[in-house]
């Protein structure tokens, strides 16, 4: 209990990082994973474009991309409705997954994820504040509010979690952070609900979140894209340092890392990623928890690879989940968060049951 | 973290019975104030006159049909949740246990939602009586799942129990959201109101239902509370002094689950009451469960009553659901407890 995941596996990490034989093996796995997930993403997006109220075959999809004909209804459906939706789903999944990967790396807490640590709840709170008080905010302003909200939520959880684990001299630190996250999530969502009711914006907000990625147009994609790419790039910049940080603060400091700076950049990147994603789709849980674990399991703990691979896998998961949300109960759309919870909850239980890998 | 409930009392305490009397009178006074609060203000002498049967038609309607049943339900439900939480904290030796956190509210709620979507007619009297039973089944199954999942090498780690509760609760939440998509608009509206923790059953029928169930469960819980004192000594000692620990534990948990289920079926999921009220009671009267459990019941009743009042008068003409208000008060207190526990 209480021994963090990665510190537990110090030996193995050093092997992974410095053992050439093993690295060769890893390189193969990494390349394979990237190729497979890229194929998966192309197939998934294609399928996602084809499935819907109007069935569209592959040829039409390719045609409408290669030689777009504005007057053709099917071409219009593909290019203006389904493609932006698939692209958006991919980027949101990538954002949540990478944010989770960074958080798990920095905190060495296997339960760290945007959903559990109050980041998403804070961002959602920001969005609702914007809806209630600044109803004429533009899309790009909404992202900023959502970003500030995610920073706010994280700050509360982090200070409570730190104070709590300080009290218990570091024991149960993981659990206390998770519980603080759950309580702050409950608090913020009840405050949000109160504000929604008070200002009578409930329908607007419900419409906003229910729409999720469904009503997305290219305009929204263009507004979100710079943010999520900036967040992903920031994550890549500190990827190497994250690997060292995941060995423990002392080790990283001993290796000459400027820990405070790295942590600050990591936090900034998480806020940007989650803020952008939540402002479109609302808090979608469990992607940020599950995908990083899966990625580390598949290709090891070198964050230079974990970050891009998490992005690909997270994006793939959300593209597929979004497609499934349309297929479960047509013509209605099942909220995509329900589908990710169906995958995420069993996994969370598996983690919390305290297998050796996690060290809970 | 482990045994919050044996935190030593500090300083001299008031006589517990005196404390209970004070809480009881606070309850009555707040009930009286709550009758007066709302869109139509009714002068105090008119309230008294109406209560003894001399009110005008309008006053009768406002007081007897609208406000009083709701007030009574708030007190009953608050007491039920609080006692349920007190038992769970005592049995699991975990100060963070409560029906909401352990996922029982979600389980009971899901059963209610299923019941509503299966039986399409409006909720009539007969079905309203069956509702708590459905809720109990849902909560009991959830409790079993959470318990089995936290079982490892024959022991239940209190912390794993809480984590499993959170996980199972959020899983059921997703299922609930999913099932609302298959509902007609009437059922959907109902579930939406119900999920925010609103006291929706505001007629005397629901008062009757919850009263029938709770008037049997609450005294039983208070009677059984003395075994909690023995359990507090730890399993070995408890077995040593002759308490049938396992059997008693199962009885107590069943009572706690039933209490939560009844409350959820009348008032929706009101979180944090079961968590806070026992802690408040411990601060007030110490750790003797014979006194602590009734004190928790009264504190829980007052808490929900006042939260409902705040939700009703804060922003005319809209109402903030009581669950939202309670969470607004409860979550910061939970965070405070989290920081304080070792």
From TrEMBL, chain A:
Tell me which family the UniProt entry assigns to this protein.
Belongs to the binding-protein-dependent transport system permease family. FecCD subfamily.
InterPro entries with a match to the protein in the record? ABC_BtuC-like, ABC_transptr_permease_BtuC
Q: Could you tell me the keywords of this UniProt record?
A: Cell membrane, Membrane, Transmembrane, Transmembrane helix, Transport
Gene Ontology MF terms:
transmembrane transporter activity
Keyword hit for Oxidoreductase: no
Listed transmembrane segments: 32-54, 86-103, 115-134, 140-161, 197-216, 223-244, 264-291, 303-324, 336-352
- In its UniProt entry, the species of origin is given as Desulfuribacillus alkaliarsenatis
Q: Where in the cell is it found?
A: Cell membrane
Q: Name one GO biological process term.
A: siderophore-iron import into cell
**Which PANTHER family does the entry link to?**
FERRIC ENTEROBACTIN TRANSPORT SYSTEM PERMEASE PROTEIN (PTHR30472), IRON(3+)-HYDROXAMATE IMPORT SYSTEM PERMEASE PROTEIN FHUB (PTHR30472:SF58)
Organism lineage string? Bacteria, Bacillati, Bacillota, Desulfuribacillia, Desulfuribacillales
Q: What name does the UniProt record give this protein?
A: Ferrichrome ABC transporter permease
Membrane topology reported for the UniProt record: Multi-pass membrane protein
Please give the superkingdom of this protein's source. Answer: Bacteria
Q: Which Pfam families match?
A: FecCD
**Which Gene Ontology cellular component terms are annotated?**
plasma membrane
UniProtKB/TrEMBL annotation, chain B:
Q: How does it sit in the membrane?
A: Multi-pass membrane protein
Q: What's an example GO cellular component term for this entry?
A: plasma membrane
Give any GO molecular function from the UniProt entry: transmembrane transporter activity
State the Gene Ontology BP annotations.
siderophore-iron import into cell
Q: Where are its TM segments located?
A: 17-39, 68-88, 100-119, 125-149, 161-184, 204-223, 230-246, 252-279, 291-314, 320-339
Q: Which InterPro entries match?
A: ABC_BtuC-like, ABC_transptr_permease_BtuC
What are the subcellular locations of this protein? Cell membrane
Alphabetical list of Pfam families matching this protein: FecCD
Task: Name the Gene3D superfamilies on file.
Answer: ABC transporter involved in vitamin B12 uptake, BtuC (1.10.3470.10)
Q: Which UniProt keywords apply?
A: Cell membrane, Membrane, Transmembrane, Transmembrane helix, Transport
Q: Please state which protein family the record places this protein in.
A: Belongs to the binding-protein-dependent transport system permease family. FecCD subfamily.
User: Would you tell me the protein name for this molecule?
Assistant: Iron ABC transporter permease
Which species does this protein come from? Desulfuribacillus alkaliarsenatis
List the taxonomic lineage: Bacteria, Bacillati, Bacillota, Desulfuribacillia, Desulfuribacillales
